[in-house]
Amino acid sequence: MADSTPDTARLIIGDQEIELPIIRGREGDAAVDIRGLRGKTGYITYDPGLGNTGSCTSEITYLNGEEGILRYSGYPIEELAKQSSFLEVAWLLFKRELPSRDELQAFEKEVIYHSMVHEDLKRFFSSLPKAGHPMAICAATVGAISTFYEAVRYEDPDDEHWAAAIRLLAKMPTIAAYSYKHSVGQPFMYPRNELSYAANTLYMMFGTPCEAYDPDPVVVRALDLLLILHADHEQNCSTSTVRTVGSSHANMFASVSAGISALWGPLHGGANEKVIEMLIAIRDGDRSASEFMELAKDKNSPVRLMGFGHRVYKNYDPRARILKKACHDVLSRTGTSNPLLEIALELEDIALADPYFVERKLYPNVDFYSGLIYQALGIPVEMFTVFFALGRMPGWIAQWLEFHRDQDAKINRPRQVYLGHETRSYVALDER
Ligand code: ACO
Questions:
Q1: What sign does the dihedral 221-178-369-339 (CA atoms) show?
Q2: Looking at ligand 1, which atom is closest to the CA of residue 237?
Q3: Any residues with Cβ below 6 Å from ligand 1, and which?
Q4: What are phi and psi of 61, to 5 degrees?
Q5: Is the pTM here over 0.90, yes or no?
Q6: Average pLDDT, 10 consecutive residues per value, the chain (432 residues)
């Protein structure tokens, strides 16, 4: 914060004046600490959607929505996207430092070692409808796998948390791939420990026992990039959900399962699926791009331009910028073309020149271009958000761990302003 930032804020309510401390963030952000507000004044704050509310302090991710900046533990997302790997980023989020070569190798080995899921879990998948959405299947399975570890006892809670972190990170690709295999009626493929995290994910998704499947290195790298870009995004809807569930001291599996459900919604991670549906509708002539844009601007229509707008970014989402370029690269390197990309570019051009979007600072978000890359990698549309969840896993875990080490952490329990009936007497059923 600039040196001129005061140490306290003064709040006047009626004839009462109180002083509230100001907390300074590392990068110029600042917050009025209102913990004493209700006790001193009887008032609470009102902030639907929590857009003005800091629910925690964090050392994991820095995001500046006005300037379009995203850093994991200080490292710009652009540098990590170019030079890092997903598991290295996971370590960074967990430990706040890049690993040494030995640390990274040991970590990769530990994760790979835990990638298999309990054999009994196959029956769990078989009991669910094949047409069930894979996000529902993943949320249910992640919650259910805690049952396999209830009997394992740890003296040190840190050891227990680390074991849960490794298991979740390691088993998520297997669970994701099984949810797909279940939907298409193919046999589940066991993980192969000699493959990298991303290559193993693709192998379990697309391999079959009938023939060899060697993931294309271009495709593997593209998936690793997508996972890096999704790895954390500070206090978004699903991460806040993970922290909230974790705040009751529910275990990490239960907390992350709730985060997966939160991510599923079309206003959050589910938007990547909706973007492709929107582009297909335009391609198939249901509506032209400009007709669609008019509908998105019409307040009487429920249509929104999916993949556009963000609670925090009032500038181009840096992840969308990287993905837009990656989209061109992947399509040219895999020798494929996708007419949907042309439609997406056209929509972006129209939006960025349209006063409605310009005035509201609505830019492409991470979901606008990610689906096009998933498509190029052969990932079916209903699996897009599952891959988002796969990428977000280190962030959810890191934030859960941070919450549990935070001396200020309390159970999350917001208040409300009650607008219902005043007190009244019960009326017996036959008198109503
Ligand atoms: N299309 C058309 N209008 C939009 C869009 C959009 N995609 N996004 C926002 N607006 C408009 C709103 O109607 C509102 O207009 P108004 O001021 O005239 O009422 C204004 O822009 C502000 O929008 P809010 O909904 O108040 O912004 P909020 O921060 O609450 O919502 C959100 C952010 C949910 C992401 C929103 O922009 C949206 O629905 N986008 C489409 C869905 C999407 O892409 N979600 C993925 C987000 S990224 C992620 O979660 C990983």
A1: positive
A2: 50
A3: 49, 267-269, 271, 296, 304-311, 360, 362, 365-367
A4: -130, 140
A5: yes
A6: 81 97 94 97 98 97 96 98 98 98 98 96 91 96 94 90 97 97 96 97 97 92 97 98 98 98 96 93 89 93 94 95 93 85 93 96 94 92 96 98 96 97 98 96
